[in-house]
Inverse folding.
């Protein structure tokens, strides 16, 4: 299904063939409809008229910017290395070392220098990539060269389904989402979200008394039946709120659950959004981290795991295959302009870059620009200087290579964590859980060990199976393993329930503290509850822990999982 | 009066002696009262516990940040140069060249290198000034080293009058002000502003149907009598709005009028704010640009102007004198914690740094932190890396030296513009205008020239005085000359009025376009009207143009003012 939406290098649709976005101005809230342009910023166009002597803008003199030049040593992206690296040992042994795929993918040359000169010219040129420009006041639109790079990237990679889409820079997806909330939502509205969602996104709407409406998800994202049912049965009288008009979703490597929506689901959700006039906000920080599934040890051959991270061909076909594997963006389905896509450089370059962008219809991007002018004035010029120079140095092809390296790195790290779960627990595959019933889970049990007591269900296969401890679905993207904790395996489960307390709060919090006291820090699942305090019906016996595989070195991850398995086994003893 | 509030190096009040801020929580709006902390950010403290193995935060791996190091060539601030530079010619002649005071003040050594290494350590250390930290996710509070630098700076320079003040970083004063509006104001409120105010500030409240209430100003800022009268006579029934609870003011080098409030006025306004329970938001981008007044040519001696820019002594006494001349911040008077001060690096370092900070009571800084987390996540790490390294390299003393250089540079530029007005027009001093009647204006007339017609009022003194053209007050701070245009000197003035049109709109716009067509760009005063469309009673015959002296090189400024004088003379012919 996905392939039919996939990137094709040669055949990007001519904009002429695509429909224009429809009028969605009724979605703008009162504040946004009332916002006028920054009148001073309106002078910028005159300021750059040739030969104009400007006494207009209150621009500081670049001569007294204390930076004469800036430079950076960057990793080069000239070409993929021809040969795979030495990381091809027996991955069933614990010989995996902290090793970056980047140096492998991009050859031996360690770094390259980029530099941003001062280049003060008397006439302020907003298109120059120099410090006199980038340290100066500038448009909230972002630097023209960076914006053009992004526009070209969106056109080639996401191929929106409507003609008049635009891009608009912001200072990262968290800020971008806050701007979208500020543009579309009224106090007291309701919003559609995944039942577990990113807390940073909640912060934007929670203070506005906006009711989050949980949509059921499984490992492949939103369930269209549940989505339809919520909207079809919405009773404005009973709810005291308008039917939700906005969906916030993280389709790829969802935070915290790690699930990924593929084309078929997206098409269904998109069609429902057309039916119910819902704006889709897709927040896609992990989009390029989508990779092949984890292969358990039993199915692995020596060196196989590495080859699975990328096909490594540095040619057009290799690029095509990379794109073909990516799930299509919601933009791809969007023939009305009702999708706002949030992209960020946080995961592909660095979070400190605080740079991202909106892709949306021109009404929305213009209103978002006005909102950004007021909220941030413009993105940071020093950050823009470095990121713009980096992108111009790498070029489009180089950045695509870089994304392949990023993907390979996180796929490797995902495998580290799943491999470590496999080596610290006994795993049973194809299990059913009362949550996410559409998909199959892997359930972890205590391994038998000499001198340990307890009943052994299957002595031959070597595990004590009367107590499922935790379950997980190996993610295809993102940075997290979402660990389901079988709270009903705890001796106090019934006691806590009988006391009228929520085991998910009491027992999971206890486990979290146990882990932290043993120096392993994870995030309890209730942090991500879209509707905090409201139990997940039918799955009250399951708690969750989010484990990040993105950051820890391999030896620390190994140590952490070994501690975790001991703490969990003891917890359930 | 000011001296009693001035900075004293040794005697900063012990915090113990100062009162704590009073409870101002009733000023928080509904949204702010409803805002909870970012729960994920709450994990940061655990993440840095010694020996903690963290699988918690979704932190990207710093190994795949593509920047290995960053560096910059900066202007050094080691010591003030011993000798004045060569810029000591006869300033009555047009020999002034574009020349920075910076190289003069800071000696000959052209630049120094600062660099930010990668320094990836397995444990994420938020206090390290390295790329692994500053390119990573971080707290919205800002980098600890930068925050500490700022805290120390505020304590030494502004000496707040209450004990429990705090600083909190933001991404510049425009963003900071937006956050303050989002914290304090409800839709439909009213706000106290100077009758001409910064349009960027209007953008934050205008979409919320917040009514700006103009307070009369003269060259020394807000008029306490008018301020008192507005609040004393506020009729909630008639206005349909609560009495204003927030004052937005730019006390030093006000944008656009260039006026500066000194201690006496500030004390009066502060006391009124206590009386009427008003929060004072002082936005001080031009604070350190406050300098001695302009000296007209007649009063100047060769080389005098230069010495006036700074006393140039690079010792404790020189620093004390620099501070003694600065007007005290509203913070200095604040014994209740009702002042929120906005500072920015935009004018002292560079606008592209997009870094500034709040100084306020701890209730407000905590709520502002929560707001920033949602609105921006955190300030840009690349920008913070560079600014933090710069400040650590310069140190407090170096930054104070730098501020003296900035002040001297803009004072010189202010003199360029006033000198050029003096040489292109005939000036009459001590004039009264129907606006800002408390202060004396300088009024410009056409100079007599051979072959020019028209009646000459005072042939001996050489000017045609029947038509005052423009008037101005030489500013002591800021970046602007606020030029009052005598619209009633225009032949169509009565005709336009008789048609029921606003001369300020019709004639001033005509003059603005005339100037732009002759390649001189200025900003028409109505852009800054706090209550647009509402005529300034008693001064309908005065329009304004804002002329920036901050940016243009001297030769361009000269060219622009010569063109301007010709266009204005022709306009009024």
């Amino acid at each position: 299904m996905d392939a039919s939406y996939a990137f094709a290098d040669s055949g990007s649709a001519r904009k002429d063939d695509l429909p224009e976005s429809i009028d969605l101005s009724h979605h703008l809230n009162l504040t946004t409809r009332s916002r006028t342009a920054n009148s001073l910023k309106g002078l910028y166009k005159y300021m750059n008229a040739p030969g104009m002597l400007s006494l207009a803008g209150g621009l500081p003199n670049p001569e007294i910017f204390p930076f004469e030049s800036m430079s950076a040593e960057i990793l080069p992206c000239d070409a993929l290395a021809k040969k795979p690296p030495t990381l091809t040992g027996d991955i069933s042994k614990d010989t995996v070392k902290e090793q970056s795929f980047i140096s492998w993918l991009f050859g031996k040359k360690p770094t390259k220098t980029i530099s941003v000169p001062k280049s003060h010219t008397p006439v302020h040129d907003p298109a120059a990539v120099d410090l006199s420009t980038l340290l100066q006041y500038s448009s909230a639109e972002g630097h023209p060269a960076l914006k053009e790079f992004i526009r070209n990237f969106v056109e080639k990679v996401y191929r929106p389904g409507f003609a008049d889409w635009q891009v608009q820079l912001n200072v990262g997806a968290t800020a971008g989402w806050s701007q979208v909330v500020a543009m579309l939502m009224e106090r007291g509205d309701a919003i559609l979200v995944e039942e577990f969602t990113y807390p940073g996104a909640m912060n934007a709407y929670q203070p506005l008394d906006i009711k989050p409406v949980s949509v059921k998800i499984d490992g492949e994202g939103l369930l269209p039946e549940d989505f339809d049912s919520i909207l079809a049965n919405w009773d404005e009288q009973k709810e005291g709120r308008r039917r939700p008009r906005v969906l916030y979703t993280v389709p790829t490597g969802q935070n915290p659950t790690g699930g990924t929506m593929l084309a078929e689901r997206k098409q269904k959700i998109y069609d429902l959004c057309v039916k119910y006039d819902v704006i889709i906000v897709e927040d896609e920080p992990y989009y390029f981290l989508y990779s092949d599934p984890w292969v358990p040890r039993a199915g692995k051959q020596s060196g196989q795991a590495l080859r699975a991270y990328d096909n490594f061909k540095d040619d057009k076909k290799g690029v095509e295959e990379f794109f073909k594997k990516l799930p299509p963006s919601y933009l791809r389905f969007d023939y009305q302009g009702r999708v706002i896509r949030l992209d960020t450089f946080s995961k592909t370059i660095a979070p400190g870059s605080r740079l991202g962008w909106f892709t949306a219809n021109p009404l929305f991007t213009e209103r978002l620009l006005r909102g950004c002018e007021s909220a941030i004035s413009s993105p940071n010029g020093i950050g823009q200087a470095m990121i713009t120079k980096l992108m111009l140095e790498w070029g489009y092809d180089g950045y695509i290579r870089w994304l392949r390296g990023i993907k390979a790195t996180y796929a490797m790290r995902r495998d580290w964590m799943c491999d470590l779960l496999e080596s610290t627990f006994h795993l049973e595959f194809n299990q059913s859980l009362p949550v996410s019933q559409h998909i199959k889970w892997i359930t972890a049990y205590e391994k038998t060990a000499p001198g340990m007591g307890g009943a052994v269900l299957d002595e031959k296969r070597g595990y004590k199976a009367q107590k499922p401890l935790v379950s997980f679905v190996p993610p295809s993207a993102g940075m997290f393993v979402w660990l389901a904790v079988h709270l009903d395996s705890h001796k106090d489960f019934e006691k806590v329930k009988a006391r009228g307390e929520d085991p998910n709060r009491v027992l999971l919090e206890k486990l979290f503290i146990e882990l932290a006291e043993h120096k392993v820090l994870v995030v309890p699942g209730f942090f991500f509850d879209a509707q905090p305090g409201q139990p997940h019906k039918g799955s009250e016996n399951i708690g969750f822990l989010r484990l990040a595989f993105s950051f820890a070195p391999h030896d620390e991850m190994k140590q952490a999982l070994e501690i975790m398995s001991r703490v969990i086994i003891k917890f359930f003893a």
Notes: The CA atoms of residues 327 and 394 of chain A lie 25 Å apart. Confidence is low (pLDDT under 50) at residues 1-13, 82-99, 450-455 of chain A. DSSP finds 18 helices and 20 strands in chain A. The first helix of chain A runs from residue 30 to 34.
